[in-house]
């Protein structure tokens, strides 16, 4: 095997997953509306990757995976800012009607999200527990988006490139594990369900048209 292949693979592993969300961010900025994309995706990735960075302090895994986590944190902070800035008009926080305890992750300002993350970083969890939490959280990544699509009965606002990135990331990590590198992952078996066949979402045509109308105003 050529000596440059591991280097290219490491760069791809570090840079690829964060770049997946560029298209999603550009789409939201262009429409000035984050309807269809679940901010809970940002929550899961931020908490999981911050936790993974702490885990690295106690048990050094692949450096490429550490860089992936750092770049993913930066990417998700930027995407979260965009989502908060262009939140849908019908967001619960706009009406003070959140049904979550303490309105978790449905806060009104971007600063409140940063305060929560800062508090999480200061919590000093045990290193070994951090590793299991990081892996477990990331395995639930597609669930919020699946719920969002189900509630809307529509795929409006969710980019196919994001889904392909999730599938590609699982496939890449699976290949890396097969090649004997020190990385562990939980393949997301529910990822394909996020991009459900349009036939199952026909009932959401009215919702999609309403969202399209809002984005064009």
Question: How does this structure look, described?
Answer:
- By secondary structure, the protein is an all-alpha fold.
- The chain is built from ten helices and no strands.
- It has helices at 4-31, 40-58, 63-85, 92-95, 110-121, 127-138, 142-152, 160-178, 191-194, 205-216.
- Helix 1 packs antiparallel against helix 8 and helix 2 (40-58) packs antiparallel against helix 3.
- Residues 180-188 and 211-216 have low confidence and may be disordered.
SSE layout:
Elements: H1 4-31, H2 40-58, H3 63-85, H4 92-95, H5 110-121, H6 127-138, H7 142-152, H8 160-178, H9 191-194, H10 205-216
Shape: globular
Provide the succession of SSEs: HHHHHHHHHH
Question: What gap, in angstroms, lies between the N and C termini?
Answer: 55 Å
Residue stretches low in confidence (pLDDT < 50, at least 5 long) are 180-188, 211-216
Helix residue percentage: 55-70%
Average pLDDT reading = 77
Query: What would you call the structural class?
Result: mainly alpha
With helices defined by DSSP (H or I, 4 residues minimum), what is the helix count?
10
Tell me what portion of residues adopts beta-strand conformation.
Answer: under 5%
Radius of gyration: 18 Å
Report the major sheet.
Answer: none
Give the tally of β-strands.
Answer: 0
Oligomer state of the chains in this structure: single chain
């Amino acid at each position: 095997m050529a000596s440059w292949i591991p280097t290219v693979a490491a760069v791809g592993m570090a840079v690829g997953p964060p770049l997946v969300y560029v298209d999603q961010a550009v789409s939201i900025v262009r429409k000035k509306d984050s309807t269809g994309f679940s901010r809970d995706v940002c929550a899961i990735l931020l908490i999981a990757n911050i936790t993974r960075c702490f885990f690295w302090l106690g048990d050094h895994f692949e450096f490429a995976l550490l860089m992936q986590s750092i770049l993913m944190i930066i990417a998700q902070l930027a995407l979260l800012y965009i989502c908060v800035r262009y939140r849908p008009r019908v967001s619960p926080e706009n009406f003070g009607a959140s049904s979550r305890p303490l309105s978790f992750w449905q806060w009104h300002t971007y600063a409140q999200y940063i305060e929560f993350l800062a508090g999480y970083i200061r919590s000093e969890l045990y290193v070994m527990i951090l590793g299991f939490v990081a892996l477990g959280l990331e395995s639930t990544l597609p669930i919020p988006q699946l719920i969002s699509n189900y509630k809307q009965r529509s795929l409006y606002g969710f980019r196919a490139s994001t889904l392909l990135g999730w599938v590609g990331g699982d496939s890449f990590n699976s290949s890396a594990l097969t090649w004997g590198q020190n990385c562990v992952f939980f393949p997301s078996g529910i990822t394909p369900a996020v991009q459900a066949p349009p036939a199952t979402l026909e009932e959401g045509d009215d919702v999609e048209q309403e969202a399209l109308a809002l984005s064009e105003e």
